[in-house]
Amino acid sequence: MSTLDRIKTPIAKEMAEFESYFKKSMRSKVPLLDIIMNYILRRKGKQMRPIYVFLSAKLLGAITKSTFHAAGLIELLHTATLVHDDVVDESYQRRGFFSINALWKNKISVLVGDYLLSRGLLLAVDNNEFEILKIVSEAVKEMAEGELLQIEKARNINTNEEIYFDIIRKKTATLLASCAAAGAKSAGGTDEQVELMRQFGENIGIAFQIKDDLFDYQALNATGKPSGNDIQEKKMTLPLIFALNNANPSAKRQMKRAISKNRGNTDSIKTIVDFVHQKGGIDYATEKMKFFRDQSLEILNRFEDNEARRSLTDLVNYTIDRTK
Q: What is the 3-state secondary structure (H, E, C) of 277-312?
């Protein structure tokens, strides 16, 4: 049994039911849309967001119909944002497969994203899940703001930590925050409990993104991810921001020139990666990641001990111990 399967043990039955529930929520009578929905379903990932929703609900009590509505709404809106992101980023691959825009071009991709968004909204409205819709809609708003903030700021060599954390909180952490909060709300959690779970999700979401950013500075064969991706795209992430801030003025100017002139060749990427390692950027980012992990665990430990809390604890550790 894999680590993730073991983590899902308390919610295995519900996750199996959710698979057919989610398929039903994506169906369309338009043949082209149905083909694309089936393509998306066949290439779904680890379903981390529904796992967080179901475990958060079980932590506070029982999984209800509202929990399925919350997980379905989040997964539909998240899938919509991924389809739109691939258009914005001009990306032609998603999880090792062709993206929707690679196969069906941008116009259809945008309409598919709009369709998924509308299905999510209707799922919530038709089931009177207005509180959960409010939680998730706030997350979608912040994700859009985060994307725009990243476009505006992330490739600025003078980006600082405050801007970096604002971007990743909005762009990545807010979605996991909504998963935990919506799961808690679906189980009848109090406003205080829902807010605590939102904070829990936000902290682990930040840790998750720092982990992703650290992959960029690790060897390809260790992570299964392209090494230097963010560097090639001139994205300023935490390891590089810290390294630049802790270099002397001469080294800082030299490295800024290297980053600006970087065209993605192996030698220039290696120079930047070596600089980040030498200046302690990796160690600093790792410590920050652990700090946010510990914050999320501290919040989790305020809840009664049960199998869902133990699985959430394991899921937090899995999030930052993963190798890809």
A: HHCCHHHHHHHHHHHHHHHHHHHHCCCCCCHHHHHH
Q: Which residue has the higher pLDDT, 289 or 158?
A: 289
pLDDT category of residue 219 using cuts at 50, 70 and 90 = low
For residue range 239-259, list pLDDT tens digits in order: 999 998 888 888 888 888 877
CA distance 294 to 300: 10
Residue 193: how many CB atoms within 10 A of its CB?
20
Residue 42 to residues 52, 60, 109, Cα–Cα distance (Å):
21, 32, 17
Structure tokens at 103: 């196969």
Query: 120, 121, 131: which is closest to 186 by C-alpha?
Result: 131
In eight-state DSSP terms, residue 218 is S
Domains of the chain (ranges; CATH) run 3-321 (1.10.600.10)
- State the Cα–Cα distance between residues 185 and 191, nearest whole angstrom: 8
Tell me the chain's radius of gyration from C-alpha atoms: 20
Predicted TM-score (pTM) of this structure: 0.88
CA 271 to chain centre: 29
Q: Compute the distance between CA of residue 103 and CA of residue 83 in angstroms, rounded to an integer.
A: 12
